[in-house]
Amino acid sequence: MNIHPSAIIHPKAQLGKNITIGPYCIIAEHVTIGDDTVLDNHVVIENYTKIGRNCRLHSCSVIGGTPQDLKFKGGETYVEIGDNNIIREFVTINRATEPGSITKIGNNNLIMAYVHIAHNCTIGNNVILANVATLAGHVCIEDYAVVGGGVFIHQFVQIGKYSITGGCSKVVKDTPPYLKVAGDPSRPYGLNTVGLQRHNFPKEVIHTLKTAYKILYRQGLTLQDALSRIEQELGDSQEIVHFVKFIRASKRGICR
Fold first, then answer.
1. The sheet that has 152-153: what strands, in order across it?
2. Which of 55, 57, 129, 240 is the most exposed place for a label (fewest CB within 10 A)?
3. Chain-wide mean pLDDT for the chain?
4. Where are the alpha helices (DSSP H) in 132-188?
5. How many other CB atoms are found less than 10 A from the CB of residue 13?
6. 85: part of which helix (H) or strand (E)?
7. What is the 3-state secondary structure (H, E, C) of 199-220?
8. What is the four-CA torsion angle of 151, 154, 155, 156, rounded to 10 degrees?
């Protein structure tokens, strides 16, 4: 363990093996940090935060701060971060609001500089949040999604897996899986074909998803008629099942 003498660490904080803690870091009492994690200088880890193994937290990130939510009245709420995450400079990740609830981040994510993740957000695995992406409360981002720089996401919005959101977009409706969206407000611009190819999706799966996109957005059908037609014509592959299930579960409505 390599701890700089200027770091302030509560004696009850639980630190794993082979941890590096740089100058002027502050770690509160109710904190757990996994093995092989590195904190650069001036990192602040507030109470009720759990960080997994092999993470890298860059300078001046603040993890576990109290939520910017007027409903918050104190109590134990949590931040839970998985393994192999890169958290760059000046990132802020807030605790959840309701007692016992969690702001949760999975594994293998890249969270770039100045990103803000608000209370009760859920981030999956292998997600990229580019610089200054801003997530309001209760946002959910599924696995392998990419959110561009300067994107603002409204509270309770859901972002589907393998989607990509273009920089400086304002996202006020849910983004279905596998799509590329951009704009103010965000609107769909086709399938995220390049992303799917990079993740080795078979050509036939990409073709099927393109067909689903056309049925949903280009046939002039109602949402329910489009989903029924997708189910009837495109089979029950896991990608189509997830695509339809995500849209049917949307509470805010999808971008159109």
1. 8-9, 26-27, 44-45, 62-65, 92-94, 116-117, 134-135, 152-153, 170-171
2. 240
3. 98
4. none
5. 16
6. none
7. CCCCHHHHHHHHHHHHHHHHCC
8. -100
Q: Which two tokens stand for residue 44?
A: 């602040």
Using the predicted structure, report yes or no on whether residue 153 has a pLDDT greater than 90: yes
Phi, psi of 141 (to 5 degrees): -120, 120
For the cut 90, the answer to whether the pLDDT of residue 98 exceeds it is: yes
Q: 211-229: per-residue pLDDT in tens?
A: 999 999 999 999 999 999 9
Nearest to residue 121, comparing CAs of 177, 78, 184, 185? 78
Sequence-distant (6+) residues with CB within 8 A of 21 are: 2, 3, 4, 7, 9, 15, 27, 39, 43
Which residue's structure tokens are 């592959």?
237
Q: List beta partners, residue 71.
A: none
pTM (predicted TM-score): 0.97
Q: What is the CB neighbour count within 10 angstroms for residue 207? A: 11
102-108 contacts at long range (C-beta below 8 A, 24 or more positions apart)? 102/77, 102/78, 103/77, 103/78, 103/79, 104/79, 104/80, 105/79, 105/80, 105/81, 106/82, 106/143, 107/52, 107/82, 107/83, 108/82, 108/83, 108/84
Assess whether pLDDT exceeds 90 at residue 235.
no
Its sign, for the CA torsion 247, 197, 123, 170, is negative
Pairing state between β 186-191 and 179-183? antiparallel
